[in-house]
Amino acid sequence: MDKELLRVVLVAPRNPLNIGAAARAMSNFGFLTLRLVNPYEVAFREARSAVGAGAVLASAQEYPSVAEAVADCALVVGTTAAQNRNPQQPLHRLEYGARLIRRRLAVQPVALLFGSEKFGLSNDDLAHCHWLMRIPSRPEHGSMNLGQAVAVCLYELVRDPKAARARLTPPKKPTAEVLEALTVILLEVLGESGYIHARVEASTERKIRSLVRRLNLSAHDAEIWLGIFRQIQWRLKQERATGAQPKPGKDPRSWL
Amino acid sequence: MDKELLRVVLVAPRNPLNIGAAARAMSNFGFLTLRLVNPYEVAFREARSAVGAGAVLASAQEYPSVAEAVADCALVVGTTAAQNRNPQQPLHRLEYGARLIRRRLAVQPVALLFGSEKFGLSNDDLAHCHWLMRIPSRPEHGSMNLGQAVAVCLYELVRDPKAARARLTPPKKPTAEVLEALTVILLEVLGESGYIHARVEASTERKIRSLVRRLNLSAHDAEIWLGIFRQIQWRLKQERATGAQPKPGKDPRSWL
After folding, report:
1. Bigger pLDDT: B166 or A256?
2. What is the pTM for the complete model shown?
């Protein structure tokens, strides 16, 4: 997909804030060619909503008709909130339509049309389209904000299906040696503090060992917990040296 | 996924227009529980940008702290524009994070946190999160508009991977009988109009037949073209009956 080949075409947009928001979403996702057909307000280039996307607005081109705005495109796609305006014109859900657009963007320019905030694309506008595309919004409330519709469509274009299957940052895990060190010190602390008997049964030790593994700690966090329990252990030993007795609390061992 | 179990939490949002836009996107995608932590302006419930989503705004709940806003949730996810704020806190791309959220939403409430327009979520806010999620925007311009970020995240949650593989409305195709009728009448019209000789070679007929199939017409459109060529045929025959001669134009047959 060559992102430079996409033309985002806003047809008769009324609110400069929405034009700015569309430009911002374009910049967020790396599509920089904005075309406007008869924008309602001429001062759209100053829209403050285009945070960080001033360049997209500044280079936006204006056209007097849809035909002229899409003239260089080999695929013209109209967006619509309607479930089915005209059964003869193919209507694709965004998930599928974006695939077709990506494929075409590998070789030729594509126009993606968005209608005015109030009325969407007119039937005359839609007649310029090869097919229509629908964002899967609720039938009860299908009409989306212009800037949000642009953002969602462009997101689907840059979306990476492979990323859905893989984590971005698999954290480093602690070695068994570290987990065992943590287990041993935890057993000592639990014995020291009276939570379990100092000389525990093998079954209790096994349960504690397994409990530590279930924490599913990262390497980094395992070191922190090791430090925490070393400090607790040191403090408990100090207390014992100064003669303080650990207070027996309620017996919470029943869960073991 | 039980959509009622998602809590969209806006932390310290400043602009009521953005709160309204977030509510609209929520309504568009069918997530109706909005929570606000210390909104900057109290008059957000009147936000005009919540077109069609007044009910979401009206039922929005306010909380004095993140802890209270997410108290009932079994998974707390923070959104961030940063590539990697804190390497210890797992960071997932939206495509993967949404999968985890959907899975958890099948059984328990999930909080999805969005920070203020200016600063995003603070480090204190992020510490309440099990992990962070990033919309795959450009590194050069990662910061998204609040309403657009909400729209894109919720879209990914309702997105249907199966829909990417199947067309929504497979159009009915014409039968071979109809295509052949169209071919025959087209051959007659081309002969009648002087585009090809009235008695064409077999190879020319074969090329025209194949040309018609490559149009890849829908059943509906095939009938329209049949009507168009019948009318042209009728008119040509009438012209011949009244003695008018078809004018030979340039020879465009060279492409055949």
Report:
1. B166
2. 0.84
Distance from CA of A95 to the nearest CA of B (A): 4
Contacts of A95 in chain B (CB under 8 A): 159-161, 163-164
In this predicted model, what pLDDT tens digit does every residue of A169-210 receive, in sequence order? 667 899 999 999 999 999 999 988 888 876 777 888 989 999
The CATH number that applies at residue B114 is 3.40.1280.10
Q: Which domain holds residue A72?
A: 3-164
Show the tokens assigned to A230.
Answer: 């070393």
The answer to whether the CB of A12 falls within 8 A of the CB of A116 is yes
For residue A217, the chain B residues in CB contact (below 8 A) are none
Residues of A in contact with B28 (CB under 8 A): 135, 137-138, 141-144, 148
86-105 in B: which are within 8 Å (CB) of A? 87-88, 90-93, 95-96, 98-99
Q: Final residue of a domain: which of B106, B137, B164?
A: B164
* Helical ranges in A134-218 per DSSP H: 146-158, 176-192, 202-214
Q: Is the pLDDT of residue B256 over 50?
A: no
Q: Which residue has the higher pLDDT, B248 or A81?
A: A81
Residue B184 C-alpha, separation from nearest chain A C-alpha, in angstroms: 25
B124 CB-near residues (< 8 Å, 6+ apart): B66
Residues A195 and A251 in one domain: yes
**Do B130 and B180 lie in a common domain?**
no
Is there a domain that residue A240 lies in?
yes
Kindly state whether residue A171 falls inside one of the protein's structural domains: no
